[in-house]
Amino acid sequence: MANLFRTYGILALVLVMIVKGISIACYSFTEMGVLTIFLMEFIITITLIYVVLIHIQKSFIIKISHAENENMKLVDESKSMIQERALEEVLPDILFRYNFKGDILQVITKNDELLLHDKEGLVGGNLVDLLPENVSKQVMDSIKRTLDSGQLSSFEYELKIKDKLMYFETRMVVYSNDEVLAIIRDISELVRERQQKDFLIYQDPLTEIFNRRYYNEAVQKYEKNAQDKFGLILIDVNGLKLINDTFGHRHGDNLLIELAGVLEFCIKDFKGFEVARIGGDEFAIICPATNNSDLQVLIELIVKHAHLKEICGIPISVSIGYSLSQNSELDIEEMFSQAEDYLLSRKLSDSQSMRHNAVEAILSTLNEKSNREKAHSLNVSRIAKNIAIAMNLSREQVNDTYTAAKLHDIGKITVEDQVLNKPSSLTEDEYESMKRHVESSYHILKTIDSYAPLADYVFSHHERWDGKGYPRGLYGVSIPLPARIICVADAYEAMRADRSYRKGTSHSNAITELSRCSGTQFDPNVVEIFIRHFKSDWYHDNAI
User: Fold this and answer.
1) What is the CA angle 210-211-214, rounded to 5?
2) What is the spatial distance between Cα 139 and Cα 156, in angstroms, rounded to a whole number?
3) pLDDT at residue number 3
4) CA pair distance 172, 142, nearest whole angstrom
5) DSSP structural state of residue 126
6) What architecture is the 205-357 domain classified under in CATH?
7) Is residue 135 within a helix (H) or strand (E), and if so which, with residue range?
8) Longest pairwise C-alpha distance within the chain
9) What are the domain boundaries of the chain?
10) Whole-number pLDDT of residue 59
11) pTM (2 decimals)?
């Protein structure tokens, strides 16, 4: 502005001097001439002032216009910032703007924790340099697809952010000729819920391994994409019913859970192998790309580690069958049938062996729980054997009576320790609990071929001659003879043995009590033979 006034001031001075010069030259002119010159000076001065004012006005207008433009630009920028902040507040997602080269032009998010890098470090960078290769390739493919088609495109990807695996969904639309707008949403929770739902569909709720549905779909996939050397292993639990009937289903469930853990442990070093529970006590292992040697190693591993696990003192026993395809033409049904046939042939011997071992384990556990029970069973079995011999029973009947007497209280393994070893008389509820041991004994023995005929003897040894016994209220000769013998032997031993809360009675007192209850509680014939052959104090001389 100062330069402007200086320029016009000099111009005005020059013009005034010119006019003055003309005035001096025309001094001698008439008054009219002088007046004319004065008017010329005045007009020139006014004109100069007008020109200066016009120029000043234009200058101010230009400056004001420039200022307005600057203000508008600031207003636009302010509006843009307000809009961006508003988007950050209301948008739960991340907004990216890319160009066709993959350059990041804009990032909007209120949750910087969902970004792989700081927001400032992303803008101006290229996604190829900033994202993992597999993710950046997906994004670049989507940018090209979106710009080429003009249509919305979407895809999902996973990204590890601060050591946490996150899942995102990207939806992309055209923003301009060579730019796209991408809205990225965190779907981690949704994906995990979906994965959990899928897992529950294919999960056995008890053992938490794969179920029959998963097995069926998995083998169908392998059957469609057949490959050489596909193996199938079937595993069947031995003695599950024995455990369920003897100790309760809770312990049977624990057996299945333990075995599932063993199977998962054993296959962990075999690539691609998967285990599923396909039935109540049946498991299957899918074995892709394998060979006979690997299958044999795995089977031995399973048998070994299963046997190391115990349920109620009984080692876990399994029967195993397997099948291996020899060519790419898979027939899963045929392979299953082959493996099952092999398993069943093994189970006949494995199962009986397991049950015999189970009986020994139960007796051992029972004896550990109560020394009194160990002595009681052995004494009763020896007394019963002598009675059977005195009654001139066959050798087989004597042996059956002896064995049944030895096992007659095996079901007490299910009785709680505090009841079994209680130093005083049992309450009514405790007595009812104790009475149920005969049913447990029956279930244990019934599952074992060699002991099955003895199960009924054991089941009936608390029946009474008059029909007032338990559990079935049998009477007279409807009670099996070995059970009637065991009943007398059991009662005599119980009277003679010391208890923590009382001293055992004498032989003569025990004989008197047997005689008194003959024909009501006891078979009178068995009592008569017992008294005749046990005149001396046999218990004192022979009891353990």
Assistant:
1) 80
2) 10
3) 56
4) 7
5) B
6) 2-Layer Sandwich (3.30)
7) helix 133-149
8) 190
9) 2-85, 91-192, 205-357, 370-542
10) 65
11) 0.61
Tell me, rounded to whole angstroms, the distance of Cα 330 from its chain centroid: 31
Nearest by Cα to 282 from 345, 347, 220: 347
Q: Which residues of the chain have pLDDT under 70?
A: 1-42, 44-45, 47-92, 110-114, 116, 118-119, 226-228, 327-330, 500-501, 536-544
CA 425, 429, 431, 437 torsion-angle sign: negative
Element (H, E) at 176: strand 164-176
Rounded Cα–Cα distance for residues 436 and 374 (Å): 19
pLDDT of residue 29: 47
Indicate the helix (H) or strand (E) that contains 293.
helix 292-307
Contacts of 428 (CB under 8 A, 6+ apart): none
- Three-state DSSP class for residue 316: coil
Q: Does domain 370-542 have CATH number 1.10.3210.10?
A: yes
Q: Is 499 helix (H, G, I), strand (E, B) or coil?
A: strand
Tell me the C-alpha distance between 285 and 210, whole Å.
10
The type of residue at 367 is: N
CATH 3.90.640.10 fits 91-192, yes or no: no
pLDDT of residue 20: 56
pLDDT of residue 228: 66
Q: What is the DSSP string of 441-482?
A: HHHHHHTSTTTHHHHHHHHTTT--TTS--SSS---GGGS-HH
8 A C-beta contact, residue 131 and residue 217 = no
CB-based burial of residue 115 (10 Å sphere; 0-12 exposed, 13-18 middle, 19+ buried)?
middle
What is residue 266's predicted lDDT score, i.e. its pLDDT?
Answer: 96
- Per the CB < 8 A criterion, the answer to whether 207 and 260 are in contact is yes
**Contact indicator for 439, 411 with CB cutoff of 8 Å:** yes
Q: Which residue has the tokens 């996939």?
A: 221
Q: What is the pLDDT of residue 123?
A: 83
Cα first-last separation, the chain:
131
Question: How many angstroms separate the CA atoms of 51 and 48, rounded?
Answer: 5
Beta-strand ranges (E) seen in 274-367 are 274-277, 282-287, 310-311, 314-315, 317-324
Q: CATH topology of 91-192 equal to that of 370-542?
A: no
C-alpha–C-alpha distance, residues 463 and 529, integer Å: 19
Q: How many residues does the chain have?
A: 544
